[in-house]
Amino acid sequence: MRLVAYIRVSTGEQERRGTIEQQRDAVRIWAKSNGHRIVGWCADDGVSGSLPVEDRPGLTDALAKLDTADGIAVRELGRLARDLTTQEGVLAQVWSHGKRAFTLDGEVARDDPDDPMRTAMRQTLGVFNQLERGMIRARMRAGRRAKRGRGGYIGGAPAFGVRAEGRELRPDAAEAATVARILELRESGLSYREVASALQAEGRRPKRGKTWHVETLRRVVGRAEAPMIDRPTSD
């Protein structure tokens, strides 16, 4: 069966769940073992699974490539989405076009009105994926509040525009110039996607990864209105 493979990892999950390359290897081995052929690879590197489809270029690309494939393959449903609504919407789109969806555990069976338990089990897994993401965010917020309470920078990945020097955060001149350019492009009326394209064309890169994503740009713009030195959160 000809399948499009979709792989995704968010920045905070890379160490815990594996890199893009590890996911790619796992999907490749699974496909070969089960007689499938991967005809397209689509990835979102450093992109949250809670984002809607339109803010994930890799997933958008994967769905578009289904026109020339039999289905989509992901390592697990949590890679497809961390939000139950998005998960179900993507699966519905795949099935509505007569395509099939697979994880490394096997095919994700289509809904059957005579077997409501099938749908309930899949959606229950989606609920727990969404819950896990919510718990991670809650822990991050609690950690940030604790850091602010103690004062100063005590670790963690610096935000775009600053760099860590010992236990202090200092402005990064090159990144600060990119922040100014982002604000300039936004003020000219460009959308976040258009800003991302402009930055890529100018050779300006994010702190991590090779490409700019809409959510990263939103965070950069949001922080630009307040002093960044006191904001150690990461992109």
Topology readout:
Layout: E1 2-9, H1 14-17, H2 20-33, E2 37-45, H3 57-65, E3 71-73, H4 77-80, H5 84-96, E4 100-103, E5 106-107, H6 116-150, E6 162-165, E7 168-171, H7 173-187, H8 192-201, H9 214-223
Parallel strand pairs: 1-2, 1-3, 3-4
Antiparallel strand pairs: 4-5, 6-7
Helix pairs in contact: 7-8
CATH superfamily of the largest domain: Resolvase, N-terminal catalytic domain
Shape estimate: globular
- Give start-end ranges of low-pLDDT stretches: 227-235
Indicate the radius of gyration in whole angstroms. Answer: 20 Å
Strands, count: 7
Count structural domains. Answer: 2
Helix content: 40-55%
N-end to C-end Cα span: 37 Å
The major sheet is characterized as:
5 strands, mixed
Mean pLDDT: 81
CATH domain class name of the largest domain: Alpha Beta
What is the tally of helical segments? 9
β-strand amount: 5-15%
- The CATH architecture assignment of the largest domain turns out to be 3-Layer(aba) Sandwich
**SS-based structural class?**
alpha/beta
Tell me about this structure:
The protein has 235 residues and is of the alpha/beta class. It folds into 2 domains: 2-123, Resolvase, N-terminal catalytic domain (Rossmann fold); 152-230, no CATH class. Helix content is 49%, strand content 14%. The strands form 2 sheets. A 5-stranded mixed beta sheet has the order 2-1-3-4-5, with helices on both faces. Strands 6-7 form a two-stranded antiparallel ribbon. The longest helix has 35 residues, at 116-150.
